[in-house]
Task: inverse folding
């Protein structure tokens, strides 16, 4: 009986165990992954202005120097927008010898400004817009002056022969197109063919002392005027042949009037070509005192001993004849 009871008890226990729900395991903590740090937003770098781009490019050092000399850097750094046709350094180097040096002189600031403004169009004109201007004229920032635009074989040309070689360099205040030559307004182009007396003397290279003397005497503006003038120009060697210390003395501020008188004695009113000079016996100078003229063995001499060694260097406001000594006015 006890054995039977024990057996029933065991069976009952097994049935209870089989019917009971399985134990629920204790929850296990799951580690929470940290979110990746988000980089702080950064502002996009500001685009540079036309002047900044040109200054950093390396191909426009002459253009940048000219813009600064003309006082246009602030303007072309302004809001705009502008379209700039930018000549390379090689384009400026291709100008007639001495032209650039002359343009950078303070006396020629307005002329330089006009030329630079002739390279600027109001507004932002992209390459595709320029192509659409084929056969038309475009207003420049130089008042009253336009440039002619044409396309040929997919290239854009300005004023017939100035080629746009690089396009659409965008700036914060406009766009730059690179050109292979300097654009000249019609009036300036004609003037460039013949520089004035002072600029011609500067570009020549044989008259550095004469130019320094003209500037010291305050006569540069006069000799750049409308004229016409005839200048008998002593070379550097001619000035060097003066007695020692003479030139240094003449260049002193207290001797400015004496220097001015000597220089004006080298200037004759009007344009007197060599063919005219040989027919003269004297030449009335701007100083009011005449220089004598004689022809001997086909050579022209002033005041008997000063020889004219080169004739008829024509300029926009007169003519230069080169002489081998300094003319000194009679007492």
Result:
């Amino acid at each position: 009986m006890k054995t039977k009871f024990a057996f029933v008890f065991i069976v009952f226990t097994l049935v209870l165990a089989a019917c009971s729900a399985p134990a629920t395991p204790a929850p296990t903590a799951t580690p929470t992954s940290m979110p990746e740090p988000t980089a702080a937003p950064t502002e996009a770098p500001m685009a540079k202005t036309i002047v900044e781009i040109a200054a950093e490019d390396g191909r426009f050092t002459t253009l940048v120097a000219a813009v600064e000399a003309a006082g246009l850097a602030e303007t072309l750094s302004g809001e705009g927008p502008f379209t700039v046709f930018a000549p390379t350094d090689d384009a400026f180097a291709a100008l007639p010898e001495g032209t650039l040096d002359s343009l950078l002189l303070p006396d020629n600031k307005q002329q330089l400004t006009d030329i630079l403004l002739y390279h600027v169009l109001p507004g932002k004109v992209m390459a595709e817009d320029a192509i659409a201007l084929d056969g038309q004229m475009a207003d420049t920032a130089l008042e009253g002056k336009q440039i002619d635009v044409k396309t040929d074989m997919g290239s854009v040309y300005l004023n017939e022969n100035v080629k746009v070689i690089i396009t659409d360099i965008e700036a914060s205040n406009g766009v730059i197109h690179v050109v292979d030559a300097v654009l000249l307004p019609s009036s300036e182009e004609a003037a460039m063919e013949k520089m004035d007396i002072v600029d011609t003397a500067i570009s020549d290279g044989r008259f550095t002392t004469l130019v320094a003397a003209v500037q010291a005497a305050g006569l540069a503006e006069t000799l750049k005027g409308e004229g016409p003038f005839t200048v008998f120009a002593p070379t550097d060697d001619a000035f060097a042949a003066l007695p020692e210390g003479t030139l240094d003395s003449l260049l002193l501020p207290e001797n400015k009037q004496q220097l001015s008188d000597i220089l004006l004695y080298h200037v004759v009113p009007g344009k007197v070509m060599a063919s005219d000079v040989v027919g003269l016996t004297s030449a009335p100078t701007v100083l009011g005192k005449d220089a004598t003229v004689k022809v001997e063995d086909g050579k022209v001499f002033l005041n008997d001993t000063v020889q004219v060694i080169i004739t008829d260097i024509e300029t926009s406001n007169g003519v230069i004849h080169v002489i081998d000594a300094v003319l000194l006015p009679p007492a």
